[in-house]
Amino acid sequence: MANEQDIRERVSRDYTLAVTSESGCCCGSSKVAQKGVVSRLAGYGAEELAALPAEAVVNSFGCGNPLAFSEVRAGQVVLDLGSGAGIDVLLAGKKVGSQGRAIGIDMTEAMLAKARENIAASGLANVEVRRGTIEHLPVENSSVDWVISNCVINLSPEKPRVFAEIARVLKPGGRMLVSDIVAEDLPEWMRNHPRLYSSCVAGAINEQEYLAGLRAAGLIDAEVRDRLVYDATQLTAFITSELQDAVSCGDSGALPELGREQMEPLVGKIYSALIAARKPSFKS
Ligand SMILES: C[S@@+](CC[C@H](N)C(=O)[O-])C[C@H]1O[C@@H](n2cnc3c(N)ncnc32)[C@H](O)[C@@H]1O
User: Fold this and answer.
1) Where do the structural domains in the chain lie, given as residue ranges?
2) How many whole angstroms separate alpha carbon 143 and alpha carbon 243?
3) Strand 270-278 to strand 170-183: parallel, antiparallel, or no bridges (unpaired)?
4) Can you give the pTM of this predicted structure?
5) Helix, strand or coil, per DSSP, at residue 56
6) What's the pLDDT score for residue 181?
7) Mutate to test the pocket of ligand 1, among 83, 106, 118, 139 (most ligand atoms within 8 A of CB)
8) Which residue from 188, 158, 183, 189 is spatially nearest to 81, judged by alpha carbons?
9) Which of 13, 86, 145, 195 has the greatest count of CB atoms below 10 A from its CB?
10) Using CA atoms, how far apart are residues 233 and 259, in angstroms rounded to an integer?
11) Number of Cβ atoms within 10 Å of the Cβ of 208
């Protein structure tokens, strides 16, 4: 079993490839031709996408649109964990307006560089990205109104630390709303497949573990608000393309037989969930 730092380095390498070349084996898409499809499937409106720099949209690797379901208001501070090329942190910047702030955190230099280009292209002066890990956020205690995240926490090898960091940086009464892949009863070969980690499958935990982790960190009102369940065709396309890339990358051995028959039992077991929680207003 690789240690936490090795896992983060591998994930970061894969996302560097994803944003700088035509390959890379990542969440929601592994081929440039599929980029953009991911964001549409994730539930963004055509109008909100058209108002963003195109490079933020084609380089999105999310599995939902957490901000769309939030009640973020003008003047608030929003923190986006694993902000990637910036799609959600830019949308947050628009929502909070010039009196508010949107801050993205990412550990991958190439993603940060792309996000900075996109922030400059958007002209938004209230948006910034910082280099750091979501397990050790470079953010002050009790300083943000909202934590959002899109398909990132599943990639952390230290999820309890991430949940504790969310609780630390939220203001009392502040809220978390994240879209993430959750998974149950994954076959052992999927759990252990190195390429399926970066693609947001192998590291995913189930809903109960997620909610229990948030509660253990001191957050309240933890709940699953919505589920985006992939059908067998979507799952097959997604997982097969990841594994084919892995084989062409030469690092993952033989490609298992994967057709509808193998995928059908996984429908409803690997899906995107919209998860909410809140920091208590006062210490009891
Ligand atoms: C699946 S992509 C999602 C990017 C973005 N949220 C979006 O919707 O397009 C995952 C992003 O999280 C970053 N990431 C993964 N694990 C991380 C960690 N432990 N700390 C900081 N960033 C991380 C990756 O570098 C990558 O940019």
Assistant:
1) 4-278
2) 41
3) antiparallel
4) 0.93
5) helix
6) 95
7) 106
8) 158
9) 86
10) 9
11) 11
What number of residues does the chain have? 284
Find the residues whose C-beta lies inside 6 A of ligand 1: 8, 11-12, 15, 26-27, 60-62, 82-84, 87-88, 106-108, 111, 133-135, 150-152, 155-156, 200
91: CA distance to ligand 1 center in Å?
A: 17
**4-278 has which CATH code?**
3.40.50.150
* The two three-digit tokens of residue 121, written as one number: 């292209």
pLDDT at 52 over 60: yes
Distance CA 278, CA 284 (A): 15
Q: How far apart are CA 221 and CA 200, in angstroms?
A: 25
pLDDT in tens, 219-276: 999 999 999 998 888 887 777 666 655 544 445 445 566 667 778 888 999 999 999 9
**Residue nearest atom 12 in ligand 1 by C-alpha distance:** 82
Query: Is 223 in a helix, a strand, or coil?
Result: strand
pLDDT at 205: 97
- Residue 94: name the closest of 70, 130, 62 by CA: 70
